[in-house]
Amino acid sequence: MILFKQILLLITLSIVVNATTLKEMIQSGLQNNENIKALNLQNKAKQKTFFSVENIYNPIVTTGINYSKLNLDIRDVQVGSTLSGFVKVDIDLYNGGKNKALKNQKEYEYKSALFSTAISEKELALQIVTLFFQTKTTIQNIKIFQEKSATLKAQYERIKIKYDIKMVTIDEVLKLQSEYETNEYTIQDLEYQKSDLLENLSLLVGKNIVSLDNSTLPRVDDLEFIDSENIEALKIDIKAQRENTKIVSAINKPQLKLQNSLTIYDYSDYNEQFLKDLPDKQNQIMLNLTYNLFDTTSKDKIEVSKLTELASKQKLNYVKNQEKINFKLAKKKLTTTKLKINSLKSAVEMGDTIYDMVKIKYQNGIVDNITYLDALSKKTYNKALYRQALNDYEIAKANYYFSSGVNYKNVLKSW
After folding, report:
1. What's the whole-model pTM score?
2. How far apart are the first and last CA of the chain?
């Protein structure tokens, strides 16, 4: 038995030593979370899209080979077979500013995607922090209720001895037994909650989490609200929509295009007496200027783009006000949670004192088991609330910090 306890102690110490810190979890989540990986790949795709339209002149070089052959009645002045190879260059000298606007739009969309990824990373970090301390609360509650079970079991065994010698009635034994069994069920339910939380935490972090250390967040000083990544992303979205309006409007502006073609010919099956000046190669330069006089769709498309931009501006104002309110509430929550901790600390001390007094009276037969169990339940309840309040304070710190708009990665570097 002693050897078994020593082995169990070594295993426990090993788990504590290898417990995953909160900082490690956040860093692992940012590197291994599948959703973040997907967003990074999407960002690369948007970057490639931007690179594909980066040159506003949109130069296109094409090459090819043509072969033609005439059959049946061929005149003397006709070539029977012609083989030609060509190289053609097309350049948009001006297309109403469409290509430039398209380049700007894709650049804004790429930058917006980077901000969106930063938002997702921040949300992931906050989720990890929240689940970390919720799991801590559950683990601590398991320990608190296990202590209650040990106390109930000891009292049950004491009362059972008294019942066996007819000193107490059966109802006192049954009451303690019922309370003990109910408490054991609570522990099993908490164990399930713990497993569920650890599974979800492992999913977010991207690796298996089996134990937690005693990490706490860095001390939070007074912070000033700054625009978050969400607001910055919306600002860039508005710029992208403005460029989209320019793209749609470009159809009503002059279009100037330059085209240069170099073609090399090879002939066969023709009358050389009649056809002596066939060209071996030709170079053709074309300058095309077009202007759209009328269409039935551009006006509505421009209006749609402008309305979309206006809607985004309204959303930006709403989000700004919403985030300022959330920041104020987060700061207030931090303050109220501090007060709650102080209040519950006093409640724990009072509950311990009352329980110790009631326990002595109960063992001496001065109070009944109902009074004793009530004092024990209040003691356990106050301890559980106090531990939860401490962990809620850490979550409140995270919410306050993240809602301020400050770059949380700077904290990770110095943590």
Report:
1. 0.81
2. 43
